[in-house]
């Protein structure tokens, strides 16, 4: 019993550390984006997303490349499928819930409308890549591992497209807050902004690993199999930085950054963990993984239509969490029925 309380305490403590570190991370990455003349959307989709996507990518890499058992590799593949699901449902729902709680609305500005069109393109590209990713999980052939290179190339093209976008933010969402590492400077140095961002990222990384480790300890206690753990709980842990960033940015009124961070993280999840899975595992998906894929595709299809039509709303974003609850119920029923 004592060890269980220690596990729970470490779980909650690491979550608090992740949140506080994300405060420093989002503050630092905004200044880095400003210093590098990167547009507000690209700051979220590329700079912030690349940093916060490290925990889940590392979970997949360690599990599939260094895992010595089939269960470990299942955990990695499950994380590669569960990550996009958590982002498409829980992360977007967090933005909607925070908007409702803070009584804020998505700004109706030219910059926001342009970002929504850009986000619809991101959802469309994600869906196309995701369909290929799932299709590869249905067949087995010799050259499959080499196709991982194509997924890495797809992400490189996405980054190139985002970074080439206009970096001028005529309708930026509010002034930058003082850099936490240099609070008295009106304009901090580029070097100190990068140091703060990397330091916060390092803390997020280690705290996320601690969080995941505690979940793995809780799994057997709760009677969860490795694959159930990978699909239900591990993604929530590894996507915690994106969710925390969303809470912080919505609280600050920076909705564009919150949505862009999630969208960029999803593009990473569609490509890099998939490439790792293709390189190191047979990448064959069972019923549980296909269920996760189906709910993810449904979520993205809804978001694509909503972003493209311009009728995205707080309530719609918040309701995406219901799809995760639907998935959890179906997954538990599927495993109980065996």
Q: How is this structure best described in words?
A:
By secondary structure, the chain is an all-alpha fold. It contains 13 helices and no strands. The chain has helices at 2-35, 40-52, 54-66, 70-101, 110-136, 148-164, 190-222, 226-232, 234-238, 240-251, 255-280, 287-309, 314-336. Helix 3 packs parallel to helix 11 and helix 4 runs parallel beside helix 8. The protein is globular. The two termini are 30 Å apart.
Bulk shape: globular
Percent range for β-strand residues = under 5%
In percent, how helical is the residue content? over 70%
The count of DSSP E runs of length 2 or more, i.e. the number of strands, is 0
- How would a textbook summarize the main sheet? none
The count of helical stretches stands at 13
Mean of all residue-level pLDDT scores: 80
Distance between the termini: 30 Å
The assigned structural class equals: mainly alpha
The Cα radius of gyration reads 19 Å
Uncertain segments are: none
**H/E topology pattern:** HHHHHHHHHHHHH
In terms of topology, how is this protein built?
Layout (H helix, E strand, L loop, with lengths): L1 H34 L4 H13 L1 H13 L3 H32 L8 H27 L11 H17 L25 H33 L3 H7 L1 H5 L1 H12 L3 H26 L6 H23 L4 H23 L2
Keywords summarizing the entry:
single chain; 338 residues; mainly alpha; 78% helix
What's a concise summary of this model?
The chain is mainly α and 338 residues long.
């Amino acid at each position: 019993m004592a060890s269980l309380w220690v596990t729970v305490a470490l779980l909650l403590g690491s979550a608090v550390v992740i949140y506080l570190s994300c405060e420093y991370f989002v503050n630092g990455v905004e200044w880095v984006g400003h210093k590098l003349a990167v547009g507000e959307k690209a700051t979220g989709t590329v700079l912030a997303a690349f940093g916060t996507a490290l925990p889940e990518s590392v979970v997949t890499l360690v599990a599939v490349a260094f895992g010595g058992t089939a269960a470990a590799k299942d955990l990695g593949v499950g994380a590669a499928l569960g990550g996009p699901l958590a982002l498409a449902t829980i992360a977007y729902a967090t933005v909607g819930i925070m908007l409702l709680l803070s009584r804020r609305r998505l700004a109706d500005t030219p910059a926001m409308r342009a970002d929504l069109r850009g986000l619809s393109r991101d959802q469309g590209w994600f869906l196309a890549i995701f369909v290929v990713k799932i299709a590869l999980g249905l067949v087995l052939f010799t050259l499959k591992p080499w196709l991982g290179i194509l997924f890495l190339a797809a992400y490189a093209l996405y980054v190139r497209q985002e970074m080439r976008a206009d970096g001028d933010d005529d309708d930026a969402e509010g002034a930058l807050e003082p850099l936490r590492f240099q609070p008295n400077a009106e304009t901090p140095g580029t070097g100190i902004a990068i140091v703060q961002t990397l330091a916060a990222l390092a803390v997020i990384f280690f705290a996320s690993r601690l969080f995941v480790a505690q979940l793995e300890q809780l799994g057997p206690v709760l009677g969860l199999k490795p694959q159930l753990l990978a699909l239900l709980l591990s993604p929530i842990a590894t996507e915690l930085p994106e969710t925390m960033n969303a809470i912080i940015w919505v609280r600050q009124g920076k909705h564009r950054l919150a949505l862009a961070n999630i969208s960029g993280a999803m593009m990473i999840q569609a490509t890099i963990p998939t490439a790792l899975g293709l390189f190191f595992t047979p990448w064959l998906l069972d019923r549980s993984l296909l269920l996760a894929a189906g709910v993810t595709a449904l979520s993205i299809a809804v978001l694509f239509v909503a972003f493209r039509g311009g009728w995205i709303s707080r309530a719609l974003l918040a309701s995406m969490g219901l799809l995760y609850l639907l998935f959890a119920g179906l997954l538990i029923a599927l495993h109980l029925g065996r």
